[in-house]
Amino acid sequence: MRKKTVRDLDDEQVRDKRALVRVDFNVPLDDDGRITDDTRIRASLPTIELLLERKARPVILSHLGRPKGKPDPKYSLQPVSQRLQELTGCEVIFVESTDSDEAIQACRNLQPGQILLLENTRFLGGEEKNDPRLARALAELGDFFVNDAFGAAHRAHASTVGVAEHLRPAVAGLLMQTELDYLGGALANPKRPFVAILGGAKISGKIDVIEQLLPKVDGLLIGGAMACTFYRAMGLETGKSLVEEDRVPMAKNLIERAGMRLTLPHDAMVAPSLERAKEAKAVSRNAIPSDQAMFDIGPQTAASFSRAIASAKTIIWNGPMGVFETPPFDAGTRAIAEAMASATEKGATTIVGGGDSAAAVSEAGLEKKMSHVSTGGGASLEFLEGKKLPGVEILDEAD
Description:
2 domains; elongated; six-stranded parallel beta sheet; alpha/beta; Rossmann fold; single chain
């Protein structure tokens, strides 16, 4: 199922029209309100620039942080407006409200070549409840709707879903389309061998993804603390590692069903605690000391996973291999990132599913060496789980 994109609109629908564009400018800010990573702003530039090129007048909506439905200066989009102006070279007008007479007036006064950025949608009490009154008010701000916020597409909010019930055409932006093409293509028609790498702390957060991917992949590599729940299912000592006791039977069942397709870490990096990371050592998975915990995959596993990645044609990765914020437990995650970068170079399709994995790839400076790094952690996870994303479902279907 393909959605209409901003490219599918004809000149009459775009020229001199107000394009209400929902983006995901949920960027990290330091204590002084400075942007520390502008990746998400850059990701929506192609859509904004295409609209400007086609003489539309972009009115931008975004959320930032979790301000709990009321204005909070530390979550203002003001710093974003300055960065957007620097990146586009266009005048960006910032209005400190969203559903107000001031915002409506600013939309009417917007001139071709200017961009209007409205204040954080989550400053509005009805945003996260998808309040119909707010959705109607937001629809008044544009002549057509473009959703380019893949990172918020799994949320049925007023600015992602409600507004599209009152404003048509409602189409996907270029970033949204890229996300759907890569993630959808990998699931529907992957080049083989198709390998998925899953990490992170808990098996419970990845059960649906594992269930969805298992029938489709040629290999499923499991890392992170979630591997310890599988170890427990195999009867291995896990020491002080994080184990979800209530998920052990489920892990056992998955091992039986997956057979040779499921690969668990052969060795582990262990330490008495994160605070004593300097005492880290590699041990075989059947030799985890009872007074220590696993905090990363071991070097043998990193090498073995890297070989599996090198032989694959499509690779999806979601979740770190260890506590990558604390060296030396970043080594496993870094090895996966480097193996994927190398596979991309050799022609494989490599997809990083947002969240912590995307942060790790960015930290390693390897973003540009992946086929696609998703901008949405939660959204990409739900997409991989086979769930329908409300912010995508509501958009116009392609002819």
